[in-house]
Automatic annotation (TrEMBL):
PROSITE patterns: HTH_LYSR. Keywords: DNA-binding, Transcription, Transcription regulation. This is LysR family glycine cleavage system transcriptional activator. Gene3D superfamilies: Periplasmic binding protein-like II, Winged helix-like DNA-binding domain superfamily/Winged helix DNA-binding domain. It comes from Mesorhizobium robiniae. InterPro entries: LysR-type_TF_proteobact-type, LysR_HTH_N, LysR_subst-bd, WH-like_DNA-bd_sf, WH_DNA-bd_sf. Residues 1-63 form the HTH lysR-type domain. It comes from the Bacteria. Belongs to the LysR transcriptional regulatory family.
Length: 344
């Protein structure tokens, strides 16, 4: 039998039915209807001239002929899956994958990708949504921009910058409010939420803000929820409520006055973004060089980011590693200590 003659769809249906013992569950696994699974199996039976399954109660069982052939069919699909993984790995070898929360990636990272071209010469850049830092190698991510921490023995990191997380709303919501900078400015406003399970996962929640302000209003967890800050900002501009988000991400709406910062009397919360890469990743040296260039950009004036301070001594290992990687790539190592931020 030639490759052209292999009925792969029918064999997949048979393997799924054998695995689940049910046409319905096999259909759910394959994303088709039970009727389609049954039709594929019947076509395979007609083609081969033998019975492959029979009804048993509410399910199905394999005939002896199908049972004997199933291990070979399973090994064949395992080999195909292995081949696909190998092809995907070859594709990954030609790309450099950066993960970041979508709103930050679209507003800050994407416009600055030209700045890291020299470090990534010959590689196509791919930007994906945030992944768990401990899963970077498994997910094929070469560099992460994240506020989270992973297992430090497997990751190198340097600080990018710290952002203020501020409450903001449309000016129309504050009409008649005499003190928009006071903490009680939020008492009468509906709250918009960034849901960390839906996209952007970097921000403190409203509960964190009210705790820091020493206030506990009612209905703190109620209100519309959004996966992306850039979408939630549009809802805030439309007057749907107050939003707690990064000043850097909101700045494009704050400058023209579409949104205004409120409750300024309460010290702003902050998040610290870091550049993180797997020490033993296949592109660790490229990642270190790209991180160096992105950190250099952050050392310039970045709207919405806090001023930099000398890096803490605890980051000396990351500095040494970064310098070593840059030397291997013939990049000039940092001439001054890497810079970091302290939470406000």
């Amino acid at each position: 039998m030639t490759l052209r003659d292999l009925p792969l769809s029918a064999l997949r249906a048979l393997a799924a039915a054998a695995r689940t013992g049910s046409l319905t569950r096999a259909a759910e696994e394959l994303g088709v209807t039970p009727g389609a699974v049954g039709h594929q199996i019947r076509q395979l039976e007609d083609r081969l001239g033998i019975k492959l399954v029979r009804r048993s109660g509410n399910g199905i069982v394999l005939t002896r002929a199908a049972e004997r052939a199933l291990p070979d069919i399973d090994r064949g699909f395992d080999a195909l899956a292995s081949g696909m993984r190998r092809l995907r790995f070859e594709r990954q070898a030609e790309t450099f994958t950066i993960c970041a929360d979508p709103s930050f990636a679209s507003l800050w990272l994407a416009p600055r990708l030209d700045r890291v071209r020299t470090a990534l010469a010959g590689l196509d850049v791919r930007i994906v949504a945030s992944v768990a830092l401990d899963a970077m190698l498994e997910e094929g991510v070469d560099l992460a921009i994240s506020y989270r921490r992973g297992s430090e023995q497997d990751l190198a990191s340097i600080d990018l910058f710290t952002e203020r997380v501020i409450p903001a709303c449309a000016p129309s919501l504050l009409q008649g409010h005499a003190r928009p900078d006071a903490a009680d400015a939020l008492d009468r406003l509906p709250l918009l939420h960034i849901d960390p399970t839906m996209g952007d996962d970097v921000y403190p929640a409203w509960r964190d803000w009210f705790t820091a302000a020493g206030r506990q209003p009612k209905s703190i967890d109620h209100g519309p929820r959004f996966g992306l800050t850039i979408v939630a900002a549009q809802a805030a501009i439309a007057g749907m409520g107050a939003l707690l988000a990064s000043e850097l991400v909101l700045k494009r709406h704050l400058d023209p006055g579409h949104l205004i910062e409120i409750a300024r009397d309460v010290p702003a919360l902050t998040i610290r973004r870091r550049l993180v890469w797997p020490v033993h990743g296949p592109k660790a040296r490229r990642a270190a060089a790209a991180a160096k260039q992105l950190a250099a950009i952050a050392d310039l004036a970045i709207d919405g980011a806090l001023p930099v301070n000398p890096i803490a001594a605890s980051s000396s290992e990351a500095t040494s590693l970064l310098t070593a990687y840059c030397q291997e790539l013939r990049f000039a190592p940092p001439s001054s200590p890497l810079r970091s931020f302290h939470f406000g």
